[in-house]
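User: Hi! Is it possible to get a structure for several chains at once, not just one? Here's what I have:
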Amino acid sequence: MAVKNFVPPRRLLLGPGPSMLHPRVLRALSTPLLGHLDPAFLAIMDEIQTLLRFVFQTENRFTIAVSGTGSAGMEASIVNIVEPGDAVIVGVNGVFGTRWASIVERCGGKAIRVEAPWGQIVEPDAIRQALRQSGPVKAVAVVQAETSTGVWQPLEPISHLCREHDTLFLVDAVTSLGGAPVDVDRWNIDVCYSATQKCLSCPPGLSPFTLSDRALAAIKARRTSCQSWYLDMALIADYWAEGTRAYHHTAPISMLYALREALRLVEEEGLPARFVRHQRNSEALIAGLTELGLPPLPPIGHRLPTLTCVTIPSHIPESEIRASLLSTYGIEIGGGLGPLKGKVWRIGLMGESSTEAHVLTLLNALETLFILGGWLSTPGIALQAASRVYSRRV
Amino acid sequence: MAVKNFVPPRRLLLGPGPSMLHPRVLRALSTPLLGHLDPAFLAIMDEIQTLLRFVFQTENRFTIAVSGTGSAGMEASIVNIVEPGDAVIVGVNGVFGTRWASIVERCGGKAIRVEAPWGQIVEPDAIRQALRQSGPVKAVAVVQAETSTGVWQPLEPISHLCREHDTLFLVDAVTSLGGAPVDVDRWNIDVCYSATQKCLSCPPGLSPFTLSDRALAAIKARRTSCQSWYLDMALIADYWAEGTRAYHHTAPISMLYALREALRLVEEEGLPARFVRHQRNSEALIAGLTELGLPPLPPIGHRLPTLTCVTIPSHIPESEIRASLLSTYGIEIGGGLGPLKGKVWRIGLMGESSTEAHVLTLLNALETLFILGGWLSTPGIALQAASRVYSRRV
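Assistant: Yes, the chains can be modeled jointly so their relative placement is included. Here is the combined structure:
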């Protein structure tokens, strides 16, 4: 066999995830292992729970990291709550709402899809109508940050509807947690999950996950057992909870070291400062991209500060430019998924990836490629637009 | 908040997993991230597949790492193969067979439990009888290395039965892969999974997983969709397979770096040398423990070379000694699970943990604690017994 020592090419990760890692997180990954039942490791789990509660803005006791990626968190949000026959209203305006609805069906539930065009929010009025027209609904599931379109979904109006109709409120915060407000308690969110490789700037592999007392009560009141053993939160609670610490599965120790350190960095920066940073860098990026003739897909007011999705005019060979960015500049950005394939770019400025230097580096590379391709005649125009944003007082 | 910088206590990991990491694996963990669709990362995935085929001794094209711990691999082995109403014969002689049967039931399948006392193998004749007495059976599921009892289950006779009865053969190789032979092709195993934190000496968080063409055909012929989206191998195949590389979920990149390096180390040592090393160290350990009055639970011939489970006489305060080993010596060993709680120790000599130095270090510590407790009067007796094993020619 000839599997050589691996030296990775240099990359600036500005796609839809993973984002760049802070050197402290890289270092935490190579901390020697402890056993998953070692008292010193159990203490770390407590700290991770405290830090996760802080970033989720919740006092939910059940706040943990699921031992899988964000998609495992999505699956866990359904298999624990939904029993065969249960109806769930799912907002569908991109890949992830679509996936969520399909998981409801794999679980024997009835997915009531409230659809919106890709690039638009799911209108709260449409959710209100669905709640009125359906019979009893177990939950309403909404993607706060649709990674496939860059849409930032307002949650407060839907939160009110869920309380009015006494139904559980499920939120996908994969591309927002740590980069935009996710106020679990204030918005009465009952199940919220995220992923580590986005705005938390940790490697992929864990899913921060929190359950309200209402959600826990719903789990306790199940008539059937959870169809997943691996993601059964009633069992997992015994391991993460203080006191019992019953063995369920072996925790992904190195990943939890990394998450702990990434969360410490979030806490040191502070959530308000972090949100301002993400907002400012995304505004500068959008200003620059607009000058290049690449307008954001979502309308003003519904654009994520963490992931910018821009439309590519048909005369621009989007995949060739993406390939050049990667091979010549070492810069990764994302293409479109599903119906948006070949039509959009998805540029993530998440966690450690969200810096002024990265915005200017990307715009500079794009300007050069656009001038070489003959699609831009005024050098510096995008950089200047971005700089104007940065010269504004904060 | 006061979550401080973390400096782990020193630990020698000789429990049922995780095992010690090689410095090269620790270093691989802190390799800067690549995107999960980066060509350089896809090349790494190909290499991991090649190395996994080597360690599984298989030519199965479908050989991957599941993005979850060994328990996720266990769940994947069932949810992909079993449809509601399908019968599965499960060998139950410890925690993991018990868990497997419960997963079959959560999946709507019928678990036919073939039980044996904890510490004994599941008799092939009992499987034969079950096959004769049951109606059509979708699969026979057997734990090769029962981590809760240290029993080494012979697979060849059961493999023959599965071929005779044209039923799928599922094997849990969590505590054997990389430390004892797992000959997937020679034994006609259809679904085999393992975990990274045992004999591969990689952190926990991934589950090596392989499917035969027969298993793939069974998946293709399903009447119902897989109840899990996250573990649906029909979807995951599109990401791991060369060619399509369709996005499913974000791969746990850092963990895959670590697995690749851990597998390279296995390949450099060679499987035969590795198996001899594990066998020799476990023989030396057993020789020493026997002198301390701690006999192995499984009978001769059915003892795992990777995990030794010994019975603790009732006059010995097992949990206190384990606590002293951890606090005074920094040595982790495992206690008993379920009905064996308080009655056995489980000592893992897996991967990097399986060395002569570790065996002698542990026996030395135990001798001291036994002398202090008044349960041993002849110092050196365990160490000498172990040394006699090491002085034999290989």
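Chain B touches chain A through 75 residues (CB under 8 Å). The first helix of chain B runs from residue 23 to 29.

User: Great, thank you!
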